[in-house]
Amino acid sequence: MSQQDNVKAAEFLRAESELVLDEVRLVLLDLPLKAELTRRQKRKRKAEKFKTFGNPIELNGVPIDVKIDGNHAWLAENTSIIRKLDLETGKSLKIFKGHSGPVTALAFCDMHPGSGDKKVLITGSWDMVCATVREPLILLTV
Fold this sequence. Notes:
Helix content: 25-40%
Number of strands: 8
Structural class: alpha+beta
Oligomer: single chain
Distance between the termini: 47 Å
Number of helices: 2
CATH architecture of the largest domain: Beta Barrel
Shape: elongated
Number of domains: 2
Largest sheet: 4 strands, antiparallel
Strand content: 25-35%
InterPro entries: Quinoprotein_ADH-like_sf (IPR011047), WD40/YVTN_repeat-like_dom_sf (IPR015943), WD40_rpt (IPR001680)
C-alpha cells in the first residue's frame, strides 16, 4: 500500500471509531434527538468522503451471489440479470437477461463431465426457474 492509501485507511478507521462512539453515547446516555441528527450527518459526510475509497465498482443492482473465475467475477443480481465483470477494469463484459426475478444462485459445471472446463453456468432465481448459460452464451431454461 502506498503512503496515501495508508492515510486514507487511517482516516476511514478513525471515522468508523467516531461513529461507534457516538452510537454508544446515544444508547448509554440516552442523548436527545439532536445527537442522533449529528450522528446521521457524520455518517453522511463519511460516506461522501470515502465513496471512492479502494476504487469501488459501481453496479445498478445488488450482487446476491458472486463466483470468481480468474480475472472475472460472475454476479447474480437482484435486478434479474447475470453479469460477467472484469475485475481489473471494473467493466461489465457481458450481461445475461432471461430471469424475471432476482437471481440468487450461480454454479459452474463442466460441459463434458470430468473435463474441468467449467463452461456451463447454472443459475437459479426467485422466478423458480433454473437456467444454464453455455457456449454460445445464451440463457436457456432447463
